[in-house]
User: Fold this.
Amino acid sequence: MAGPQIIGPTSHYYYSQRLKLQYVDWGNPGKPLLALIHGGRDHCRNWDWVAQALRDDYHIIAPDLRGHGDSEWAQGSEYAMIEYVVDITQLLSQLDSFPVTLIGHSLGGGIVLQYAGVYPDKVKKVVAIEGLGPPPHMLQQQSKHAHERMQLWISQMRDLAGRLPRRYKTLDEAVQRMREANPRLSQEQAYHLTLHGANRIEDGTYTWKFDNYVRAQSPYRFNVDDAWEIWGRITCPTFLIRGGESWASDPEKDGRAKAFQNPTVVTIPNAGHWVHHDQLAHFLRVVREFLYT
Assistant:
């Protein structure tokens, strides 16, 4: 089941830390640059609906993070926030079109906030969809003992080494798994995300493109002090979006919005973690208001 045929983006590659990484470009190079950064176990084409809506006003690019989509997998499980930020810094430096507008989801939201805090003079506006990391109550549930977190991480590494990618006999079977992960997706959305997020291998089955090692969680606790310091350096208007039915907490209620100089916080009802999929029209409406004013 395919949607209407719309001319899509072109594929390009760049290098960061010896990895060959892909990004797609929606054209319109004479317009201001807008970078769309996806979340964990996702891929750049999850932004297609957003890109199609905004492409007339921006030069839109969307990278595949290392270990995701059509970008190379890292050797040695190098999938920490700092590596992702290095990669995006490298890409934006090569394009050299500042100030840039940034939109990120989940992990991607964390990346764009990190970048905007490290290089505040290079960012015009930043939108983070549930990109503040674990809510405070989840951080409190983590072990206080470093050796226990290290033991858990080492166990995860060993398990992932022996984990085989799940195979799906047909593309439709993989689409069904996509809809199980997010029941709010329409059949058309799930098909599109699966088509661009899976590879067909030699025996005819399908597997997801992302590296299983991206599932691992760092043994180091989320550094709240560092995060607040970086967020506090962001000088551009900052838009924090969450889904009303998501596990993510409200940054105004939990206090994290206070870390930012110029924040706007919006909760979109009837949306889970993938706000830009679950309530696309509402998401585009509030983002346009933010970007165009």
